[in-house]
Amino acid sequence: MKIFHTIREVRDHIGEQKREGRTVGFVPTMGFLHKGHLSLVARAKQECDLVVMSIFVNPLQFGPNEDYERYPRDLDRDARLAREAGVDVLFAPPVEEMYPRPSYTYVEVEGLTQSLCGESRPGHFRGVATVVTKLFHIVQPQKAYFGQKDAQQVRVIEQMVEDLNMPVEIVACPIVREPDGLALSSRNVYLSPEERKQALSLYASIREVEKAFAEGERNAARLIQMSVDRIKAEPLAEIDYVRIVNRRTLTDVETIHEPALFALAVRFGKTRLIDNTLLQP
């Protein structure tokens, strides 16, 4: 595995590989890798000749009171895990390489970014869309791999790629969970033992909603209330949102007639967790 810290180095190397006919699969991450990230690598290795991973904690997608400074970082550990997973190229630029001077240009996907996480994290998706655009221009992959846990992010990037005619296929991969059901996230390390125990209510509520849906319930309000009641049974849980939205437009639905995203965000102490499932009639 080759490790690069500058845009010129990684561009030159990938350019050489593409000229030799290799296809490029790209896995963008913020590091502190877990099995979810590594599942994206495994998928990319099945479908592409060269797997490129980026590790970059992007300051543009963090709000002023969010966890940018304390976001977990361990490049040595990440490099070892990436190498063991079969990553061919690791791109780990410092902030000054990606943003050497104040930016005047940003990428904004309207409509899809105003609901769900966009309501409580204004500016977050502008930061995501901007850095992903920069990374796509640097790496120029044929395919890019994202986890379905960040369902709104996946949808925003899909729309951005479609609207801007970017020559990259977005591949959404299934959520990877701990044996007890907790969705894997780099932020899980923030949870105290009791917070982590109570955080299992997210997956428990998802399973209840999936069961009711499978049995024929199509009223979104009733499914949402079922989830809210389950989560509120945990004293440390502070609900940000529990919503059922159209899979493509991310607008609220009242009755589920077509694929809908059941999504939730809940805080336990200072840790904000998200999870979701797709409800398909």
From TrEMBL:
<keyword id="KW-0436">Ligase</keyword>
<keyword id="KW-0547">Nucleotide-binding</keyword>
<feature type="binding site">
    <location>
        <position position="61"/>
    </location>
    <ligand>
        <name>beta-alanine</name>
    </ligand>
</feature>
<protein>
    <recommendedName>
        <fullName>Pantothenate synthetase</fullName>
        <ecNumber>6.3.2.1</ecNumber>
    </recommendedName>
</protein>
<dbReference type="InterPro" id="IPR042176">
    <property type="entry name" value="Pantoate_ligase_C"/>
</dbReference>
<feature type="binding site">
    <location>
        <begin position="147"/>
        <end position="150"/>
    </location>
    <ligand>
        <name>ATP</name>
    </ligand>
</feature>
<dbReference type="Pfam" id="PF02569">
    <property type="entry name" value="Pantoate_ligase"/>
</dbReference>
<dbReference type="GO" id="GO:0005524">
    <property type="term" value="F:ATP binding"/>
</dbReference>
<feature type="binding site">
    <location>
        <position position="61"/>
    </location>
    <ligand>
        <name>(R)-pantoate</name>
    </ligand>
</feature>
<feature type="binding site">
    <location>
        <begin position="30"/>
        <end position="37"/>
    </location>
    <ligand>
        <name>ATP</name>
    </ligand>
</feature>
<keyword id="KW-0566">Pantothenate biosynthesis</keyword>
<comment type="pathway">
    <text>Cofactor biosynthesis; (R)-pantothenate biosynthesis; (R)-pantothenate from (R)-pantoate and beta-alanine: step 1/1.</text>
</comment>
<keyword id="KW-0067">ATP-binding</keyword>
<dbReference type="GO" id="GO:0005829">
    <property type="term" value="C:cytosol"/>
</dbReference>
<comment type="function">
    <text>Catalyzes the condensation of pantoate with beta-alanine in an ATP-dependent reaction via a pantoyl-adenylate intermediate.</text>
</comment>
<dbReference type="InterPro" id="IPR014729">
    <property type="entry name" value="Rossmann-like_a/b/a_fold"/>
</dbReference>
<feature type="binding site">
    <location>
        <begin position="184"/>
        <end position="187"/>
    </location>
    <ligand>
        <name>ATP</name>
    </ligand>
</feature>
<dbReference type="GO" id="GO:0004592">
    <property type="term" value="F:pantoate-beta-alanine ligase activity"/>
</dbReference>
<feature type="active site" description="Proton donor">
    <location>
        <position position="37"/>
    </location>
</feature>
<dbReference type="InterPro" id="IPR004821">
    <property type="entry name" value="Cyt_trans-like"/>
</dbReference>
<comment type="similarity">
    <text>Belongs to the pantothenate synthetase family.</text>
</comment>
<feature type="binding site">
    <location>
        <position position="176"/>
    </location>
    <ligand>
        <name>ATP</name>
    </ligand>
</feature>
<dbReference type="InterPro" id="IPR003721">
    <property type="entry name" value="Pantoate_ligase"/>
</dbReference>
<feature type="binding site">
    <location>
        <position position="153"/>
    </location>
    <ligand>
        <name>(R)-pantoate</name>
    </ligand>
</feature>
<comment type="subunit">
    <text>Homodimer.</text>
</comment>
<dbReference type="GO" id="GO:0015940">
    <property type="term" value="P:pantothenate biosynthetic process"/>
</dbReference>
<keyword id="KW-0963">Cytoplasm</keyword>
